[in-house]
Specification:
Elements: H1 18-39, H2 41-48, H3 55-58, H4 60-83, H5 85-96, H6 98-105, H7 109-138, H8 143-172, H9 177-195, H10 201-210, H11 224-234, H12 236-257, H13 259-265, H14 270-298, H15 301-320, H16 324-352, H17 358-387, H18 389-410
Helix pairs in contact: 1-7, 1-8, 1-9, 4-5, 4-7, 4-17, 5-7, 5-9, 6-7, 6-9, 7-8, 7-10, 7-17, 8-9, 8-14, 8-16, 11-12, 11-17, 12-16, 12-17, 12-18, 13-14, 14-16, 15-16, 15-18, 16-17, 17-18
Length: 426
């Protein structure tokens, strides 16, 4: 009588899954490049090609992007739990393919808004899924490091593409050359995801079976409504992370939509604007390769709180000057502060959420985080129309500082080498 050996369980860890991890880092770089194709050029298109005068109206493309990305983030977690991670990733790339074509041929601003609706869906499905897949692969010990590399890849590609599109626009015009990069990114991302990325949901299920709960940890079987309320309001760490993520993207919305206009109205050319626009996510991207791993050693809370305050200082410096060199320093501060925050917030979600509902908790967090694009476009746009560009920037600096104070007061430390003696949730 022959017996069939049961398949070996998936192995968790960065080293054990290094080829797939590196592939997912590369895929997320392409995801970031899809946003980077817009960062320098689209605000200038609104102003110079389509004649969108009011700041609030010109930022409608960010509102469209933010709403669709936020809602898609929420759906992505549930879809990846139900159908697996890879199908969601591939679907996101299919939806992203038409975006550069729409931007190249857009005869009216409504085409640009439609392109950003599709871009929001693309980003929500692809970026959310690469996050969840990396958390699946590395297990609990290296989440901060994994998120640092994931976010670094995306935002370094965003920065490089922002600089490249600025140079292309200066040399060849605002269309079509800058958006041909996006078309190449979408095609390559779809090919890699379809042919080479492997499913990781089995790793999450294996971790759930071997998971040792911490004292006071939330149950493993929770309905979607309870996951939403825990992540949004009830759990102190999850809710503090959600509001910090929202405010972080609120100020990123300001940088995306209004900084290029401020720089242009101050006399900078497109190439120099591209340098400033790229510097902020460039420092952000490089920094995350360090800060994610540091949070595995030092803890999450105080990196996040300090990072929000550093961002606030950088934003205030933009409002306070008109000098290119000082603006460059401000962009570095904003990038450094964001690097201290962005991957660490995701690691907080991974720390607290049980493996069986972690993907959905990531989706809820990213819902709130990307609603920050909407809040930023509306708050900054309306304030700029009523009181001027610099007033809008000062207001966002104040909101960002307040968010850091909330983290310092409300969040508990989530990265613990040993079980906590008592629960601090509530």
């Amino acid at each position: 009588m022959t017996t069939t050996a049961s398949p070996a369980p998936p192995r968790l860890g960065l080293r054990e899954n290094l080829p797939q991890f590196i592939l997912l880092v590369a895929v997320n770089a392409l995801v970031g490049g899809m946003i980077g194709q817009e960062r320098t050029v689209l605000p200038l298109l609104a102003d110079q090609v389509f004649g969108i005068g009011a700041f609030t109206a010109s930022l409608t493309f960010i509102v469209a992007f933010g709403v669709t990305k936020a809602l898609t983030n929420l759906a992505a977690g549930a879809l990846s739990d139900r159908y697996g991670r890879k199908p969601v990733l591939v679907a996101g790339w299919l939806i992203g393919l038409p975006v550069p074509v729409l931007l190249i041929w857009a005869p009216s601003w409504w085409w640009v808004i439609a392109a950003n609706v599709l871009l929001g869906v693309n980003q929500g499905l692809t970026w959310s899924t690469t996050i969840v897949m990396k958390i699946d692969l590395v297990g609990p010990a290296r989440r901060g490091l994994a998120m640092g590399f994931n976010e670094a890849a995306g935002y370094l590609a965003l920065a490089a593409t922002s600089a490249a599109t600025g140079a292309l626009a200066a040399e060849h015009g605002l269309r079509p050359a800058p958006f041909l990069l996006g078309l190449a990114f979408a095609a390559l991302g779809l090919g890699l995801s379809t042919l080479f990325v492997k499913e990781t949901v089995h790793h999450a299920r294996h971790e759930a079976r071997t998971h040792i709960p911490r004292h006071g940890e939330h149950d493993d079987a929770l309905p979607g409504r309870q996951i939403f309320t825990l992540t949004s309001f009830r759990d102190k760490a999850l809710s503090a992370a959600s509001q910090a993520g929202l405010v972080n993207n609120l100020n990123d919305s300001l940088a995306w939509g209004l900084f290029p206009i401020l720089f242009a109205t101050s006399g900078l050319g497109v190439a120099r604007i591209g340098v400033l626009v790229a510097l902020y996510p460039g420092v952000w991207g490089f920094g995350q390769m360090i800060t994610g791993g540091l949070s595995d050693r030092w803890g999450r809370k105080w990196l996040i709180a300090a990072g929000m305050l550093v961002q606030a200082a950088g934003i205030a410096l933009v409002a306070a000057t008109t000098d290119f060199a000082v603006w460059a320093i401000a962009a570095v501060l904003m990038g450094l502060g964001t690097a201290m925050v962005y991957p660490v917030l995701l690691a907080v979600i991974g720390d607290v959420a049980h493996p069986t509902w972690r993907a959905r908790a990531v989706g809820v967090y990213r819902l709130w985080r990307d609603l920050g694009y909407v809040a930023g476009a509306l708050i900054a746009g309306i304030t700029a129309d009523l009181l001027g560009l610099r007033a809008a920037i000062w207001l966002v600096a104040a909101i960002t500082a307040a968010s850091g104070i909330i983290v310092a007061i409300r969040m508990y430390e989530t990265h613990q080498r040993h079980p906590a003696p008592a629960s601090t949730k509530g």
